[in-house]
Design brief:
By secondary structure, the chain is an alpha+beta fold. It folds into two domains: about 160 residues, 2-Layer Sandwich (Ribosomal Protein S5, domain 2), CATH 3.30.230; about 120 residues, Alpha-Beta Plaits, CATH 3.30.70. Helix content is about 30%, strand content about 30%. It contains ten helices and eleven strands. The strands form two sheets. Strands 1, 2, 3, 4, 5, 6 and 8 form a seven-stranded mixed sheet that branches. It has a four-stranded antiparallel sheet with strand order 9-10-7-11, covered by helices on one side. Helix 1 runs parallel beside helix 2, helix 2 packs across helix 3 and helix 8 crosses helix 9. It is globular and about 55 Å long.
Length: about 300
C-alpha cells in the first residue's frame, strides 16, 4: 500500500520574542499560518524493520539527520510496531527558509504512518510525538492557524475563515537560525506580543488590516546579519508597492494579498525580475482544508 501525505509550509504572521530562557532557548509568542505550498511524502510499509528515505532533492539528507526519518523512528518506538517504512520525499518547499519544511515533513510522516499502520492515534497524540522532534512539528501536525508559545510547542489553535494569498520570495542565502537568535539583544524582546490583535483581525476577516499587523522581531536581526536579504526586501517593496515581511528567522520574504487578482498582479511583476517566487494561499487544518482557487501558470 502506497500512501500520500501533504506537508504544508507555514508563515509567521507575528513573531515576538519575550525573553531568553534558562535552558538557552528563547520564549516566543507567534501566530503561525499554514499555506498550500507543500512537499509530498509518500509512505510504504516494509516488512524489514528499517527506515529508508529517498528524495528528489539531492541536497536533502536521507539518514537520521532528516526530520522525517526521526519522526518515523519516534512513531515506531512509541507504538511498538515491529516493521519498517519506505519514505519518498518530493521537495517543493525551500530548505532552511523559515517555512518549517523539515518540521512539516516530520508531521506528515507521523500522520501518514498513523494511517499506514491503522493505529488510530489522535492528532493530539501525534503532536505529542512531534514535540520530541522539534518545536514546530506539533503545529505542523494540525496545520491551520495557531498561537505558538514557549519554544513554539505550546499551541492555541485558531479557527477562522479569513482567506488570503501569499507571495513568497526565497533568496538563495543560507541563514542560521541559531545565529539569528544569538544576535538578539534585550531591546529586541517585548512584553506586549501582537498575537492577540492579529487573531482578532483574522477572526473578523479584516483583510485590509492584516498586512499592516504582520511583525517579526527577528527580521531586523536577519537584515543586519544578511544585508542582501534586506536589499531584496527593499527591491520587492519598490516593485510591488506592498509591505514585505519575513517568515521565521528567514530568509524567505512574503507579501499578503486579499484577492486573487491582486496576487496575480504581484506574482507577474515579481516573476519578471526574480527567479524563486511562489504563489500560495492560506489553508486550514489538515482535517478541513479550505477550497483552493487555481494558482497562475
Amino acid at each position: 500500500m502506497l500512501l500520500l501525505e501533504r506537508a504544508y509550509a507555514k508563515v509567521n504572521l507575528t513573531l515576538d520574542v519575550l525573553e531568553r530562557r534558562p535552558d538557552g532557548y528563547h520564549e516566543v509568542d507567534m501566530v503561525m499560518q499554514s499555506i498550500d505550498l507543500s512537499d509530498l511524502v509518500w509512505l510504504e510499509r516494509r516488512s524489514a524493520p528499517t527506515i529508508v528515505l529517498e528524495s528528489n532533492a539531492t541536497y536533502v539528507p536521507t539518514d537520521d539527520r532528516n526530520l522525517a526519518v526521526q519522526a518515523a523512528q519516534v512513531f515506531l518506538q512509541e507504538t511498538g510496531i515491529v516493521a519498517g517504512v519506505h519514505i519518498n520525499l518530493e521537495k517543493n518547499i525551500p530548505v532552511a527558509a523559515g517555512l518549517a519544511g523539515g518540521s512539516s515533513d516530520a508531521a506528515a510522516t507521523l500522520r501518514g504512518m498513523n494511517r499506514l499502520f491503522n493505529t488510530g492515534l489522535t492528532l493530539d497524540e501525534l503532536a505529542e510525538m512531534g514535540a520530541k522532534i522539534g518545536s514546530d512539528v506539533p503545529f505542523c501536525v494540525y496545520g491551520g492557524t495557531a498561537i505558538a508559545r514557549g519554544r513554539g510547542e505550546r499551541l492555541t489553535r485558531i479557527d477562522h475563515r479569513c482567506h488570503m494569498y501569499v507571495l513568497l520570495i526565497h533568496p538563495r542565502v543560507f541563514v542560521s537560525t541559531a545565529d539569528i537568535y544569538q544576535g538578539l539583544n534585550p531591546s529586541d524582546f517585548t512584553d506586549e506580543p501582537l498575537s492577540t490583535r492579529m487573531v482578532q483581525a483574522l477572526l473578523e476577516e479584516q483583510v485590509d488590516v492584516i498586512p499592516g499587523l504582520v511583525d517579526n522581531r527577528l527580521q531586523p536581526v536577519t537584515f543586519a546579519m544578511y544585508p542582501e536579504v534586506q536589499q531584496l526586501s527593499e527591491k520587492v517593496e519598490m516593485v510591488t508597492r506592498h509591505p514585505v515581511h519575513m517568515s521565521g528567522s528567514g530568509p524567505t520574504l512574503f507579501l499578503l494579498a486579499p484577492t486573487i487578482q491582486q496576487a496575480n498582479r504581484m506574482y507577474n511583476a515579481l516573476r519578471g525580475i526574480m527567479r524563486d517566487v511562489y504563489f500560495s494561499q492560506f489553508v486550514g487544518t489538515v482535517s478541513s482544508l479550505a477550497n483552493l482557487q487555481s494558482r497562475p501558470e
